Structure formats: C-alpha cells, structure tokens
Known about the structure:
Strand content: under 5%
Order of helices and strands: HHHHHHEHHHHEH
Number of helices: 11
Helix content: 55-70%
Number of strands: 2
Distance between the termini: 49 Å
Structural class: mainly alpha
Strand order of the largest sheet: 1-2
Amino acid sequence: MVPVPNVTRADVVAAARNPLAFIAARWTPDPRTVRRAALAALVMSVVIVVTGGAVRLTGSGLGCPTWPKCTDDSLTTTSAMGVHGVIEFSNRMLTYVLCAAVGWAIVAARAEKPYRRSLTRLGWAQFWIVMSNAVLGGIVVLVGLNPYTVAAHFLLSSALIAVATLMWQRSREGDAESKPLVGKAVQQLVWFLVTASVLLIAVGTVVTGAGPHAGDSKEVDRIPIDWETVAKLHAVLAWIVVTLTFALWFVLKAVDAPKGPLDRTRELFLILLSQGVIGYVQYFTNLPEALVGLHMLGSCLVWIGVLRVLLSLRERPVVVADLPGPSVEQSLPTRA
Length: 336
C-alpha cells in the first residue's frame, strides 16, 4: 500500500488560504477527467432547466411559498404541503447538485497541467451565473411567479448553458490562436443563425409567460397578450432557424467545408426537425404537460446545437513547446 503522506501545519494553512492552488499542486487530472467534468456541468445545466419546467407544469411553483426557507417556520417541505411542496423543494435541492458539478469542473480545470486560465474562468463564470439565478429564482417565488421574472430566470439558464457548452468545447481543444475553417460569408450566415436562435428562445419565454401553464394552481398574473398569436410568431422564427440551418448545410457542402462544421450542422438540423414536430403536436393538442416538458428539453438541445455549429467554424490546436534537442556536434559519434 502507498503510505498516506503526513499533513503538516503548513499544508493546512496553504489549503485554507488557497484550496484550489493546494489541490492543483498535488493532483494532475487526466485530460479526459477535465472533459468529463465540463460535460457533467453542461448536463446538469440542462437537467435543472427541465426540472424547473416540471415544477411549473405540475403547478408546484409556489409549493414552497417563500424563500430561502420553504415556509416561514421550516427550511424544508412539510407533510402538510403535499406533493407540490416536495416537487418544488426537490428542484431547489438540485441546485446544490448543479453547484457540485460546476465546482468539480472548476477544480479539474484549475488542476490541469499546464494551467489554462481561460478554462478556469469559464468554470467560475458558470458558478456566478448559478448563484445569480438561484437568487433570481427566490425572487420569482417572492413575487408570486411574476411571468417577467420567470422569463428572466429561463434566459439566465440559457446563458449558463452557453457558457457550459463553451467550456466543454474548450476542454477538448488547445489554447493556440483560433484558425477559421470557413470563409467570412459562412461565418456571417452562422451569426444570423445564432441571432435568430436567441430571438426564438426569447419569444418562447413570452409564449410561456402568456400561456396557460402559469406554474401554480392559484391565480397567477400572465403577460397580457394573446399567447396563440405569440406562438405563431415563435413558429415563424423556428422556420427561419430551420431555413438558415438548411442553407448553411447547402453552402458548407458547396464550398467543400471540413467534416466538423458539416457534422454539427447536420446534427442541428435533425434536432430542429424533432423539436418542430413536438412543437406542432403540443400546439394542436392543447399543450399537454408532458409534451411541453419535452419541448423545453428540445429548446436546450437546439441552443447547444447552434452553439456547437458556431464553435465548429474554427480550430484551436494544442500548443506544443519546442523541446531542446541535441546539437549536431552532440549527435556525431565521438572518436577514440
């Protein structure tokens, strides 16, 4: 057995002052560990969106009627609060799982050798977004599920997914200067796609804020517009995103683009088709809760797919340091 090293007083002081540096000095994770940690943070950022949607769709948004406690007298849910209290409190507890996943990504990125400051900063950016969204989630409860705060809560979650996707991608590539794989025209087309996707997500939050699923069985304020009209605008934007994706795939084939952008574009197109089918079925079946929840998952996957297309347009090779080699004189055989 390998003996456990003694922990000195200096070690304790160093760990207390800078725990991340203390861990990094004693542990070097495998690159796969860093990638998996970044992926775990991304997966949890999607899970928390889907479970948050489940809270709203089951009418459990005020299952815990206050924040940060569940009730004025209890930190946790009580039996008197029923299933709605359990659902809402369970979603709050998942925030700690998300924090743990993000924390693991930060630790793994900080301990990687050589040290990559950009990767660590992406991890910390996720942490602060999670903290901000937790506070915003509390405000959502305190203001009685105001639809505008609910929309902001979802948009901030989308920002978290964006940063998590970027960190996952960056963990799989190097830190060299990025090199474009396609021309300016293709890059501009992709930025149009990203802009249309942002508008699609934003209008989707308006549909949610005006639609029938208010998040609680009690009377909850809604955005005072016709949700079906906004849903039609949402559908138009979805078709714009689909059209831009198909056009991008056609252009990439025409210019004989590398395999990466082509594969990511094809994946996005398939996700969009699946999401469109779900969207139309839920619209014509009066928004059943299960399909709405599936549509929220699809929204996250579409956003990730769009970002992956954007990030596939360039490459970042791994920086390899020049190692000193033997000189010509040293490589020649010596004479006796």
